[in-house]
Amino acid sequence: MLGLAAPGHAATGHVADVDPRIGTGGDGHTFPGATAPFGMIQLSPDTAMPDFKHAYKYAAGYQYGDGSLLGFSHTHFSGSGHSDLGDVLVMPIAGDVRLEPGDVAKPGSGYRSRFSHDSEVVEAGYYAVTLSDYDVRAELTAGRRIGWHRYTFPVGKPAHLLLDLRPSIYDYAGKVLWSSLRVHEDGTVTGCRTTRGWAPGRELCFALRFSQPMASRELYNRETDITYKGFPGPGNQPLDHDAQNGRALVGVFDFGVLKQPLGVKVAISTVSEDNAIANLDAEGKGWDFDARRAEARAAWDKALSVIDVDASKDQRVGFYTSLYHALLSPTLSMDVNGQFRGPDGAVHQAVDKNGKFEFHSTWSLWDVYRAQQPLMALLMPQRSTDFVRSLIASREASPFGILPVWAYQGLETWCMIGYHAVPVIADAYVKGVRGFDADAALKAMVASATYAPYGDLGDYMKLGYVPIDKEQEAASKTLEYAYDDWSLAQMAKAMGRKDVAATFEKRAGNWRNAYDPATGFMRARKSDGSFREPFNPDTAGYGSDYTEGNAWQYSWYVPQDVAALIKAMGGDARFVTKLDSVFEAKVDPSHFANVEDITGLIGWYAHGNEPSHHLAYLYDYAGAPWQTQKRLKQIMDSQYATRPDGLAGNDDLGQMSAWYIFTALGFYPVTPASDEYAIGRPFVARAALHLPNGRTFTVSADPLDDAHPYVGQVTLNGKPLDRVFLRHGEILAGGELHFTMQAEPNRSWGQAPGARPSSMSDAAHTSGQGSAKAD
C-alpha cells in the first residue's frame, strides 16, 4: 500500500488492504480523502479548482501528479466523468494570511501550499499530509454527516483557518450565484451558497465549530469585477466580523499561538443552516479525533468484511480498493431530521408507506446499473432497499414525474442516456430485494419509459427506434431503451403484471431496428426508415450515431437477447470471429482524442468506458467460454494496477471497480434484471461471500497461476456444473463454486445451447427470474 503508516495507528483488517490513491492519477478521477461508506461527507484535498476547459481532469478535485494543495473541501464525486462539488473549502495557515489561492507556478503567491507524497497517509476513512509552506500537519477523518479535522501548527507561529466559499470543482470563476457567512455567539460558523454548476441552482449549507476559541475573525467579500443584477460588487475589503453576504466570500479565523492541535468539525445540509447545525449537534459531539478515526476504520472494516479473499498482497490491495470504491456511492443526502432536497428544489421528508428510510443521491445510472448496483443487491440488499426507495422518492418529487437520470444531492443533471434507474429497480426486485413499494416502483418505471419529451422517446414509441434526424446518438439510445424496456418487463412479469410485461417485452425487440445486416453493425436510422449515410464504423463522439463509442463498441449492446444477436450476425462461428476482431484490431489511441472518456483500449475494446464492459463475457453465449477466459485475463492484466494511475478510465462511481470485483470472483451480471451471472474465471484463489442471510458462498480455484489460465472444470457444491452461468439463488443458498484450472482451453464445456446464459428469444432454458430471495 502506498503511503506512510501513522505512528500508533497502523491500519488493520481489510482497511490495511485499501489504497484510496489508486485512481487519483491519470483518468481514474477518484479522491484520496476521508469518507464513510455511502457517506454524505467526502472530506478530501483539492489540488485545483479548474476552469471548464480543464474540468474533466479534475473531476475529483485532486490529481496525483500535482505538487500543491488548495485546501480541503467536503464534497466530491468518486470517479465521475464530469465535475462539480468541492464545497466548504478550508485551509490551515501558519503565519501571514493571503486571501487568494495564488499561482501554482509561484509558491508563496497565495494561500495554497506545496506538499510531498512522502508525507501523505491515505487510508479508508483517514487522510493526513504535511503542508510544506506552513509546516502544518493536517489530518482528516469522517463520519456519515460530519467531517473532522485536526491541524497541528508549528511552535510559535500564529494559527489561522481560511474558509473560502468561492471555489467549485466545475469552473472556479463566476459559478457562485449567492452565498452567506456568519458567526454565532457560541462561535459556530454557518453559511450557505447557491451555485450554477452541473446541477443549476444547487444550494448547500454548512455548520462549523472549532475546538479552540477564536482570537479574532474577518469576513471578506472579494467581489471586485463581479456584478449582480446590474449593481457592482462592494469591492475587495473586509466588511464585517459577524456576517457577510455576496458571491465571493472568504472568512479568516485567527487563534493566536496554539499549544495544542486545532480541531474543526463540519456538517453539511442541502436544506438549511439550521439542519446543518442539527446534524452537527447529533453526530458531532466532543473533540476526540482519534476516536472518530477509529469509528471510521471500524465502519470500513465492517463494510469490507462482506468478502474475505485469499490472495497475494497486491491482489488484496486491488480487490479491497475496488470494493472500497464500489461502496462510496450513492451517497447519503438527508439530514438527521429526515429532510432532503428533491429534484423540484423543494424540501421533502424521507418517509413512504413502509415508514422512514434514508434518502441517497449521487446516481451515475448509465454506469452503475451494469455491475455496481447488482453488487449491492447481492452483498447488501438492505442498502438496495433504501436505494430503490430513494429513486422512487426522487420520481415523486420530480416536476417531470420520472426517475433520476444522473442526479446528485437530490438534483437532476440530465447527463447521459437511457432510463437506467429502471434496471436498477428491476434487478433488485428480481433478485429478491424487498421493503419498497413495488407498485409505486413499477408506476415510476413505466412513467420514465413513456415520457415522450425525454430523449425523443416519443418517436421511439411511434417508430420503434430513435431517428437520427431528430435526436443525436440515436443508435445508442434505441439500443439502451430496448434493454431498459426488457428489464421493466422482467419486474412486471415477476409481479404478475402480464399486461405491462407484454408491452415492454415487445419494445425490448426494438434493437433489431438498429441492426444493419448489410454491414453487420448497429446504426442509426432516419425518420423515413433509411440508415444514415455515409457510414464509418470507426466514427465516435457527439454528432455520430453513438454515445461515447462507435459501431465496434455498441454493436454488441443487446444484453437481453444475445442469442438473437448471434443469429443475426450469422451464427456462433461468425459471431466469435467478429468479436475477436474487436479485441485484435490495430487502433491508434489518438483516434479517440476528441472523446476523452474512451480509454483503456484493447483493439476497439475500451475498458475505460462502460459500453464495452460486457463484451468479454459474450463468448459464453456463443459456446466459446474459453475465449471469455482469455479476454478477461487480457483485461485484468492490462487495465488495473495498484498505482495512482491504476485505473484505465474514470471509475464512474464504482462501476469500474465493481466490474473488477465480479470478474475476480469468476462471474458477472451481463444482464441485470436477470437472475443469472455469466461465468468467466476467477482471479483470486479463494473468496468467501458472507451473505446477509447468514450463509457463506465460497469461490475457489486450483491451480491459479499464469501457467493455468483456462477453466478445465467447474463444480457447484461438489457436483459438476455443465453450464456457463450461475443463478442468484444458488449464491444465496450458500456453498462452494470450485474451478479446476488448466493450461489449455476446455473446448467442450459450455457449448450446448442449454449450457449458455439465457436470452429473451432462447427457449432452450429459462432463468427462473423472480425466484431468488434476499433474506
Automatic annotation (TrEMBL):
GO terms for cellular component: cytosol. Residues 746-775 are annotated as: Disordered. GO terms for biological process: carbohydrate metabolic process; glycoprotein catabolic process. Residues 275-742 form the Glycosyl hydrolase family domain. It comes from the Bacteria. Keywords: Hydrolase. GO terms for molecular function: carbohydrate binding; peptide-N4-(N-acetyl-beta-glucosaminyl)asparagine amidase activity. Residues 758-775 have a biased composition (Polar residues). Residues 18-269 form the Glycosyl hydrolase family 92 N-terminal domain. This is Glycoside hydrolase family 92 protein. It comes from Dyella solisilvae.
